[in-house]
Amino acid sequence: xxxxxxxxxxxxxxxxxxxxxxxxxxxxxxxxxxxxxxxxxxxxxxxxxxxxxxxxxxxxxxxxxxxxxxxxxxxxxxxxxxxxxxxxxxxxxxxxxxxxxxxxxxxxxxxxxxxxxxxxxxxxxxxxxxxxxxxxxxxxxxxxxxxxxxxxxxxxxxxxxxxxxxxxxxxxxxxxxxxxxxxxxxxxxxxxxxxxxxxxxxxxxxxxxxxxxxxxxxxxxxxxxxxxxxxxxxxxxxxxxxxxxxxxxxxxxxxxxxxxxxxxxxxxxxxxxxxxxxxxxxxxxxxxxxxxxxxxxxxxxxxxxxxxxxxxxxxxxxxxxxxxxxxxxxxxxxxxxxxxxxxxxx
Length: 346
Hints:
Layout: H1 8-15, E1 22-27, E2 29-42, E3 49-62, H2 63-72, E4 76-84, H3 87-99, E5 102-109, E6 115-122, E7 125-132, H4 140-154, E8 159-163, H5 172-185, E9 188-192, E10 206-210, H6 211-218, H7 225-239, E11 243-247, E12 253-257, E13 260-264, H8 279-292, H9 297-312, H10 322-330, H11 333-336, E14 340-343
Parallel strand pairs: 1-4, 1-8, 2-6, 4-5, 8-9, 9-10, 10-11
Antiparallel strand pairs: 2-3, 6-7, 11-12, 12-13, 13-14
Helix pairs in contact: 1-10, 2-8, 4-5, 6-7, 8-9, 9-10
């Protein structure tokens, strides 16, 4: 890879194409609830904090949050997913309208609750998370409904994102149907798998996941750079994708394609960019919009890395803006010089 493909001017040119890109998002819809508590003392009945309720914040989660981040970066987004006929499903509909999302492909299932994750924040520290949801795969009849909602929208999309959070909406049937329909239309598919259906993402154009998920899918553990290379090459072969981007926490990200393994360091030294809520989605958004805008996977990997750093520094209620991304990309010159690339076969 010539380094001049990720020079500042060329990255900026890709970013300028983000505006108006048509993205179809198919995935698990969640609601994230943050309950703030001010601790006063230890409870008498147990050695746990006793405190006062301060307030709560609701945010879109999963594919709903990814869609929100895409809109903030200038995309036109259509959403296909599943939610319950309950107060949190109704709240999501209001949010979709507020952000200008097209959500005609979102199906309401009265027999299944909207996935709800509740974080309890005591004096600003995360102390507990409780999930209320049904994580089983949806029945085949529901997968067929989701596919029927997605298929007519694929031909008008610049890119399709499959956003899996292991909450049941993304099944092997749905993945296969989306990939087949997208291939027939010559469309890019970016897969964001979790654990359960990782290897079902066969045929997607690009995969973006983290190291833990990749280790689980392959049954390999990363003990050194050689084992990482073997893991990536294994996944690339099994999934028949053009490239796979694996995030590695404070070690940055690694891109695997048919010819090279490319290591992109963290933007500003070792720093955990991937612990905060929303960072995973922001990185997937930047990568997907880059390839949808004509960028190559190396440019997409750099912009994804930049997006991770920028999003990690924002409050959780905020979304990453295109201006934020452009500003960070302009300062990525020194980072580009630290990219290391080796051939797959030496």
